[in-house]
Design goal:
By secondary structure, the protein is α+β, with helices and mostly antiparallel strands. The strands form 3 sheets. Strands 7-6-10-8-9 form a 5-stranded mixed sheet, sandwiched between helices. The chain has a 3-stranded antiparallel sheet with strand order 2-1-5, with helices on one face. The chain has a two-stranded antiparallel ribbon with strand order 3-4. The chain contains 7 helices and 10 strands. The N and C termini lie far apart (121 Å). Among the domains are: 113-179, wza like fold (2-Layer Sandwich), CATH 3.30.1950.10; 182-286, Outer membrane lipoprotein wza fold like (Roll), CATH 3.10.560. Helices cover 38% and strands 19% of the residues.
C-alpha cells in the first residue's frame, strides 16, 4: 500500500513539472515570434523610407551636418547653386568695404542732416538736425552746443556722451547721418581704384572713371550704368556706353549728381540686378536725397 502511494505521488510531481516546462517553452516561442515581427517591421520601414513615390527609384538619405560642420555645404546642394552663392559672396566682398568705409569715415559739414538718439531718454534725443554754417548744433542741457564740423558721427556721439554723463547714468548715444549735402559719388566694379570720392567739380561719367584709374581689361565699357536715386526713393538706371564715347560715336554728356553710383560690370560684378539688391548701395544713395 505504501509503495502504491509513493508511485502516485511521484507521478503527480512529474506531471506538474512537465506542465511548467510546456508553459515556459510556449512563452519563449511567443517572445521569439514577437521579436521576429518587430525586426521585420523595422526592416520594412527602412525600405519604405528609402523609396520615393515612383516605383523602382530610391532617394539617398539626406546628409546631416554635425554642429562643428555648419560651415560646410551639404553634398546634396546642386553644384550650380553653390557656384551662384560663391559668386554672390565675391561680389559682396568687392562692394561692401567701400561703402562701409564711407559711413565710418564721412566728415560732417554744413547742411548735412543728422539725428541724435539717447537710449531711453527721449527728452535728450533730437532728429533732423541741419548743421549750420558755424558747425555747432544745440542740444538739451548743453548750453554752448556741440561743434561737429569735420568730425565723424562716432566722434560726435562720443562728445555728446561725455557731456550728458553729468546728467544721465551711463548714457548710450547714437548719431546717424540722415542726409549728406557734400558732393560725393562712388565708382565700383572693374576699375583700377574703386571707391567713394569727393566731387570737386561738375564731372561726366568718363571723368569719374578716369579718377578711378580707368576701366580694367575685364570691364565691359559698353554696359556701364549710373544708379541715381529719384525723389520717390527708387534707384533709376542710366546706361552709358563708354566704349562708344571713347570711339567718338556718342557724346560725353552724362553728368553726375551727388549720390550717383557708377557701376562697371565685368569679372567682379556680373549683373546690375544683383548689385542693386545690396543694402549698402541703397543706403549710400538714400543719404544724398533724405528719403
Amino acid at each position: 500500500m505504501k509503495i502504491a502511494n509513493r508511485l502516485t505521488t511521484q507521478a503527480i510531481a512529474l506531471a506538474f513539472l512537465i506542465s511548467i516546462t510546456g508553459v515556459a517553452v510556449a512563452q519563449e516561442a511567443s517572445s521569439n515570434k514577437s521579436r521576429e515581427r518587430f525586426a521585420t517591421k523595422k526592416v520594412d520601414q527602412e525600405k519604405s523610407d528609402s523609396t520615393t513615390q515612383s516605383p523602382g527609384r530610391t532617394t539617398p538619405p539626406r546628409e546631416r551636418l554635425e554642429p562643428d560642420e555648419t560651415g560646410r555645404t551639404p553634398s546634396d546642394v546642386p553644384a550650380e547653386t553653390q557656384a551662384n552663392r560663391q559668386e554672390q559672396l565675391s561680389e559682396e566682398a568687392a562692394i561692401v568695404p567701400f561703402y562701409n568705409n564711407f559711413f565710418s569715415t564721412y566728415r560732417l559739414g554744413p547742411e548735412d542732416v543728422i539725428s541724435v538718439s539717447v537710449f531711453g531718454q527721449d527728452r535728450y534725443s533730437r532728429s533732423g538736425i541741419t548743421i549750420p554754417p558755424s558747425g555747432r548744433i544745440s542740444l538739451a542741457l548743453i548750453a554752448d552746443g556741440i561743434f561737429v564740423n569735420g568730425k565723424t558721427v562716432e566722434e560726435v556721439a562720443e562728445l555728446i556722451r561725455q557731456r550728458y554723463d553729468e546728467y544721465i547714468i551711463d548714457p548710450q548715444v547714437t548719431v546717424s547721418l540722415d542726409k549728406a549735402s557734400s558732393y560725393r559719388y562712388s565708382v565700383i566694379g572693374d576699375v583700377a581704384q574703386p571707391g567713394i570720392r569727393l566731387m570737386s567739380h561738375r564731372m561726366t561719367v568718363t571723368e569719374a572713371l578716369a579718377e578711378a584709374g580707368g576701366v580694367l581689361q575685364t570691364g565691359d565699357r559698353s554696359k556701364v550704368v549710373v544708379l541715381r536715386r529719384q525723389t520717390n526713393g527708387i534707384l533709376a538706371r542710366i546706361p552709358v556706353n563708354v566704349s562708344a564715347i571713347y570711339k567718338g560715336k556718342a557724346p560725353d554728356t552724362t553728368f553726375l549728381v551727388p549720390g550717383d553710383q557708377v557701376i562697371v560690370p565685368g569679372n567682379k560684378l556680373k549683373t546690375i540686378d544683383k548689385i542693386m539688391s545690396y543694402f549698402s548701395i541703397l543706403s549710400f544713395a538714400r543719404i544724398f536725397t533724405g528719403f
